[in-house]
Amino acid sequence: MYIGHTSGHLAVANSVALKLAGITKETPDPPGGVIVRDPKTGEPTGVLEESAKGLVSKHISVVTEEENLAAFKKAVQDYISKGVTTSIIAGANKQGLIDLQRYQKQGLLPLRVTAMGAGFGGVKTPGELGGIVTGFGSNMLKLGPVKLSHDGSIQGYTGYLRKPYHVPPGDDLNYRGYPATSREELTKRVVELHKAGYQIAIHGNGDAAIDDILYAFRTAQEKYPRKDARHRIEHAQMARLDQLDEMKKLGVTPSYFVSPYLLLGRSAQGYIHGA
Fold it and tell me: Which of 47, 72, 159, 225 is 20 to 30 A from residue 11's alpha carbon, by CA?
């Protein structure tokens, strides 16, 4: 059994799933993730944070074409019934983009869609692999920003803060969460994408994560000045006032939580924000 949290940042796996994935007491935490362990025995509790989820989820069978199409139709109908005319897919992979194009040709996609390319964990996005940049496509279906992630969830205690959590999840009173990667690695990736002409949207909840993201955006602009790049910080839950001032100076948009998420099967391979 494997159950993912609605936030997408946490999951729980039973002993059978842990065994299937080869997760034991000796298994090291993957970069940007944590295998939660019993503080006394060191044994995995089954709770997996951030990138550690992939150790188990990669063993789950993919949905069939029929299942994916059924989920897609149901989600689209739900959107239309509520008056949604435009949606953003915050992390589409290659197959997701193929599905969207096919469904549009079949007349199954009656609303506008902007698909962010999923670049989590340093993975090259479909746009990069295909040599196309932000804005490519039509008014009904086009490629949006490259979506990266630099920390996790404040509610799940995986968001990266400058100061310790007021109420830590464990016994460590200095616990501040953690970043998905180093500031240096994030900056290298951002500079590469910025230079190539992409809009970039980076998940950042904790203020320490936002510090790193702003540093990366600032460095990219200093090296390769670009007008109206429209880079974004997704969620920005713990943004400080000085960081908001810096965002304004850099022309960066904080994209705050405004509505619930809806997961759309393989076609999305991520979360869809209704607008």
Answer: 72
pLDDT of residue 11: 93
Task: Report CA 161 to chain centroid distance, whole Å.
Answer: 18
User: Residue 88 burial (CB < 10 Å; 0-12/13-18/19+)?
Assistant: buried
Closest CA to 36 of 27, 20, 19, 48: 48
Q: Give the residue among 165, 181, 168, 240 at the shortest CA–CA distance from 210.
A: 240
Do residues 61 and 266 touch, judged by C-beta distance below 8 A? no
Alpha helices in the chain (DSSP H): 15-21, 54-57, 65-81, 94-105, 126-130, 183-196, 207-223, 241-250, 265-268
Q: d(Cα 139, Cα 127) in Å, to the nearest integer? A: 17
**Alpha helices per DSSP H over 27-182:** 54-57, 65-81, 94-105, 126-130
Tens of pLDDT, residues 112-151: 999 999 998 888 999 999 999 999 999 999 999 999 999 9
Distance between alpha carbon 38 and the CA centroid of its chain, in Å? Answer: 28
Of 169, 193, 104, nearest to 141 by C-alpha is: 104
Higher pLDDT, 259 or 36: 36
Question: 243 or 92, which is more confident?
Answer: 243
